[in-house]
């Protein structure tokens, strides 16, 4: 079974996160063991994104969700480091501003979907409205329940513009989260980020798992599937996400636009210009 | 004399591009010779951008101009490869859309200036309106002439929000441009980009030089200086731009925000949680 078919949440199926091992790292023993594959992948993604940008027929939207410290920022870096920054954009969705809150929950998201030829990453997304809002009961149960359908319809609209949507749930264990929090405590560059909430939210771990499972089970669709990425090992998380991005771009079977000019004629002109030092 | 003071267009001075050597590569013999400096620079810029993003008091706007094939895209890659993509954005300004043309020339630019803590790069910019528009007489001389002042006032407004503005004119020779055009001819990934205009615009080289000189002489201000970057050698172009970006970020004397929580107390809680396997 390929990595991709192992990690996808099959539309219509019911996933239980307890059945997923966040420590999973495929056939690789270590980062060193996977390095060659990671390097090949970067080179391949780099070429594919150039074609995507040149052809301007498809676009790619990547949605990242995961509990605090699951590695959303690191995943953005990894995916984008091989791409031309001009054709890419990351948008982080934090607590809504008053203006955002005074609109429907998809209003602030829609402007950031990628244009033809582009790649956009949502670092958190419209799914916050069925995650933190559900866990903290910030909206009535009925309202939350309706949002899953609204999200599916919204993603279908976006998909209708040749936008391929990939959604990655980065899954770490509570022990790994604690280990990462402790690392932050010792890193002067990151101490400012630490909040009381980091720790107190851990008490709601099981509620979050339930909310994640509802999101995965209700919103993994043919046009916008969810993937559960075992993310305790950062290098495996990168490799898994990269593999899915690479395969997805390849499947678009993109063609570079044909040259619009007579290359021979241009070559002749250049040759002449050099001779005459123009 | 430092590299920076050599490359800056001193506000109020008159620069002649004929006096600048696009082949200049400072004290370095080759890319290999500069590699260590380039690596140090990347590591330093990476740290500084993390501070910029954390502090959220300053922002940085980088404006790139240069003739076709001068290396604007490559410069974007180089500057951004060491930065967290979440805090950065590149915006390319192409031929204005009908909606853009139906507004003043700064209307399409303003929304893309960086927010506190962010870095934005303009790949081409509002300066197109005093470059291509001047060379091709797409607006009356009087209108163009007034734009220099309007640009200075606009950049002063942007600067008033703690946005540091760096403007880089990437300067290559006509021979180097021709060499790069020829490279494109032989690269299947880039042949689609070649247009008749690439070549025909070369006939207007002297007019472009005059327009660039006017831009450099009228719009290099204390709050938004222009730098002329000798760009025949890509590695030196990257090193020069990187040096100025690094120095500029350092001069902001950024401070990481103080932790908002009692780190000792958090550490104690984590320790307890581990013991009790919470």
TrEMBL record, chains A, B:
Keywords: Kinase, Transferase. The keyword NADP does not apply. Pfam families: PPK2. The keyword Kinase applies. Transmembrane segments: none annotated. InterPro entries: P-loop_NTPase (IPR027417), Polyphosphate_phosphotransfera (IPR016898), PPK2-rel_1 (IPR022300), PPK2-related (IPR022488). One of its GO terms (biological process) is polyphosphate metabolic process. One of its GO terms (molecular function) is polyphosphate kinase activity. Residues 30-255 form the Polyphosphate kinase-2-related domain. Belongs to the polyphosphate kinase 2 (PPK2) family. Class I subfamily. This is Polyphosphate kinase 2 family protein. It comes from Pseudomonas helleri.
């Amino acid at each position: 079974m390929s990595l991709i078919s192992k990690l996808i949440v099959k539309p219509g199926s019911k996933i239980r996160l307890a059945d997923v091992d966040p420590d999973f790292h495929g056939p690789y023993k270590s980062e060193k063991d996977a390095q060659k594959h990671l390097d090949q992948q970067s080179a391949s993604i780099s070429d594919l994104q150039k074609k995507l940008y040149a052809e301007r027929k498809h676009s790619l939207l990547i949605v990242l969700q995961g509990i605090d410290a699951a590695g959303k920022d690191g995943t953005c870096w990894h995916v984008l480091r091989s791409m031309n920054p001009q054709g890419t954009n990351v948008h982080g969705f934090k607590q809504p501003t008053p203006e955002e809150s005074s609109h429907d929950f998809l209003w602030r998201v829609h402007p950031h979907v990628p244009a033809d030829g582009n790649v956009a990453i949502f670092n958190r997304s419209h799914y916050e409205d069925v995650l933190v809002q559900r866990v903290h009961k910030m909206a009535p149960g009925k309202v939350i329940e309706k949002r899953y359908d609204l999200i599916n319809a919204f993603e279908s609209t976006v998909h209708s513009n040749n936008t391929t949507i990939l959604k990655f749930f980065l899954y770490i264990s509570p022990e790994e989260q604690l280990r990462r929090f402790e690392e932050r405590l010792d890193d002067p560059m990151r101490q400012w980020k630490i909040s009381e909430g980091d720790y107190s939210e851990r008490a709601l771990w099981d509620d979050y798992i339930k909310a994640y499972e509802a999101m995965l089970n209700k919103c993994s669709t043919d046009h916008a599937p969810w993937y559960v990425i075992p993310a305790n090992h950062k290098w495996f998380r990168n490799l898994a996400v990269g593999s899915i991005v690479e395969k997805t771009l390849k499947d678009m079977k993109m063609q570079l636009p044909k040259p619009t000019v007579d290359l021979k004629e241009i070559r002749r002109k250049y040759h002449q210009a050099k001779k005459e030092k123009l």
